[in-house]
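Researcher: Here's my situation. A collaborator sent me these components and asked whether they could plausibly form a single complex. I don't have experimental data yet, so a predicted model of the whole assembly would be a useful starting point for our discussion.
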Amino acid sequence: MYSNNYTLGFVFIVTLVLGTMLSFTKDSVKSLQDQNLKADVQKTILRSLNFEENLLESNESIEQTFKNYIDAKCVNVEGEIVECNIEEVDIEKNEETLPIYIRMNNEKIEGIALPIAGKGLWSTIFGYIALNPDTDSVLGIQFYKHGETPGLGGEVEKKWFTDNFVNHPIKESNGEITYVPKKIRNENGKIISISVIKGGVDYSKSNKSAIHQVDGISGATVTADGVSDFLLEDLLRYEKTLDKIRDYGTI
Amino acid sequence: MELFNSESKKIISDPINVNNPISLQVLGICSALAVTIRLDQAIIMTLAVIFVLCSSNVILSLIREYIPARVRIVIMLSVIASLVSVVDELLKAYLYDMSKQLSVFVGLIITNCIIMGRAEAFALKNSPSKAFLDGLGNGFGYGLIIIIVSFFRELFGAGTITLPDGGAGYVLWSIPESWYAAGYENIGLLVLSPGAFIILGLVIWAQREMAGIEEEA
């Protein structure tokens, strides 16, 4: 039997050694991890803006593509451009400076990506939604960070779920089905966002809102409701900016 | 001690076959079900588990004579948890996409019963070299089963075979479009957890049959 002092001393030394080892590891890989995180966010933005996958293969090509095609700036709720350090804007809490990422091609806007973030069931979900220049139809949506249950709420980041936002089936008179993107504005041009529907979207003719709805995830109703809520809330913050782009083609 | 005498061979080969941690002792089932959706995930998970298992076995065996018995569980847990955190940090730095896919399951290696089990049952009673071999054997035994399970789940569930590379995985082979055109369909159930149970059950059955093990009634 060891004495209490020995036991305490032993535990102390083990903790000290393990703690040192951990902080040393973290310290030596921190800069690499930060680069990966930054590239991951940029990749999410580029993916939502429908860039080709082969441009997104390495951290270098992601950074290069981002630099070449993306015009990143901040706006306020009034739709005016404001100065900001875009990488340091707190997307979750921020109300005043709103980041906006515009895909440019020879001075022409090809898509607009906006950060979205909000509570799911266990965690804050972070992502980007990209709109076409009409600021109505969805170009893409991607989620990159969340702590939802894998297999349930975690499915929000999966392709089958994000594809729902760009694949609205329309039955042609000849029986063939074509796909169009979902829309965030109603007939009067007001932003009503897109809701995640428990169970699944009713695609019968009588459901006029189907174009503003996507299929939910079984076993993840709270996560889905969270996505519906923060999507509307975040899009409304950009309402004036989006109106401006729609009406004048620029901010 | 000679490294490859018959005793060391037995330490390595037993857990791969007649005393397999998953199929015989039915330990480590949680991660065996969770990370076997794709082959590349299973391979990286196997490497992570082998690293943690070997290192924790060696470290604990080295200090086994100094650990006060009443705090040994705490010491074992701290060593294992620290090693797992190191693996987690390294994956985030060097294999970011993979670490996103494995998500919480890397952290859950801490609670993998195989690792605590080997520490308590073997490492605390044997020399570091034997403990290392034991870690290697059990790591391979674990890996063998989850690689077999993930191979079948991915092939029949998603129609692909993916090997790990630096990024999102290298697709070695996928079922050609012509098969799908001819009416072939993936078995969606295999991608879900019940599918993992079924495959794992079949693997356990086959493995016990081959090893000639009979359960006492």
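Model: Some features of this prediction you could bring to your collaborator: The first strand of chain B starts at residue 160 and ends at 163. DSSP finds ten helices and two strands in chain B.
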